[in-house]
Amino acid sequence: MIKALSNITKIPELRNRILFTLGLLAVYRLGVFVTTPGVNRAVMSDVIAQQSGFLGLFNLFSGGALEQLSVFALGIMPYITASIILQLLAVVVPKLNELKQDTQGRKKITQYTRYGTVLLSIIQGTAMAFYLENLNDSFRGLLTAQESSWGFRFVTVISLTTGTAFIMWLGEQITERGIGNGISLIIMAGIVADFPGGVMNTLAKFQRGEIEVLPALLLLVIVVGVVAFICFMERAQRRIPVQYTRRAEGRKSYAGKTSYLPLRVNTSGVIPPIFASSMLIFPTTVAGFFPQSRFASAIQGALNPVDWRYNILYIGLIVFFCFFYTAVTFDPVDVADNMKRRGGFIPGIRAGKKTAEYIDYVLTRITFGGSLYLSAICVMPILLLIYFNVPFQFGGTSLLIVVSVGLDTVSQIEQHLITRHYDGLTGPRGPRIRGRRSG
Length: 439
Fold this sequence. Notes:
The chain has helices at about 1-10, 10-30, 40-50, 55-60, 65-70, 75-90, 95-100, 105-135, 150-175, 180-210, 215-235, 270-285, 295-300, 310-330, 330-340, 355-380, 380-390, 395-420, and strands spanning about 235-245, 245-250, 250-255, 260-265, 345. The chain is mainly alpha-helical and about 450 residues long. Strand 2 (about 245-250) and strand 3 form a beta hairpin.
């Protein structure tokens, strides 16, 4: 491992990419502590401490920015929501589907996503401004500006929208010029930053006797077991054998070879829980516009993470997005056609349509298993919170994001090393770490 880490410094491009990524992540973490004008961050921290549940989950994905009421308080969720909307529209709008087929079209879709991000940020920023004014009635001193002032609302919307746009820009720069997926790394950075505080809070509860010895040991076993289980499932594959026929080029004849088509159990990665969380956060944001409405209050109550209705919807959305994202990123018909053109076939399966149907059948089965795995991991925070009074950052969703994004990033670093004839991070004889887009 030490030798592998030293090899990173010998590759200027890889070293610069890693330093660039770390630098932009540091900028993001510094921006978390820039408070929105007109808000008392100390009082807002007390609000988050007293009103867990939905606010705790939102604070987790914003990397603690909501607790500070930072200019980054909206986090990257507006960007993710805009991406979801465009991907859904691409399924039903032929024009958008055509744009995805070429480079210029994808650039245009990226531009539409940016516009959608700004629009959603304005909507959520306006809801946040009204929500803060409503909270100020219960937590006096939360707002240092004049209450119910349109000036305060305007500044809040501009600050939060600009912060989200800046985070989006940071993520795109990391993806293009750094290492790993920028948006995923930003989410992971926010979660990891909360880990030390979560450990200290848990230790403090243990010292005060709020958590007994046996539950504490059980919690430790659960956390270690969940990490190991996530690593195993993220690398799990269903390998379909592929046989290639003998081919001739001029006077030379090449014997057929046997390969395999790797289908990952969790093809969609961490996208489904992130998409599902974003979709459930949006209705509560809209409900914040109507603080006096009973219907809006009922929506906010139903979409509280400790409520069983929230968890049913959460699981349903995770399963849906597992199948949806897999269908968007993996086309069995296209794979079968490419296989047929190269002279490949699955033993016992006729090439062409039958091969596509077989691949789709296998992919549907393993995707269903992967969706159950994601659902089980993501509802674990609720069980930990209810039965062990443990904060969200030790839950399955955060661990899933941290482990999955970590494996993906390490995989990209390892590919840089192997391409330049260096040993990977696991050594010359160690297993290769498969990223989310391997195979």
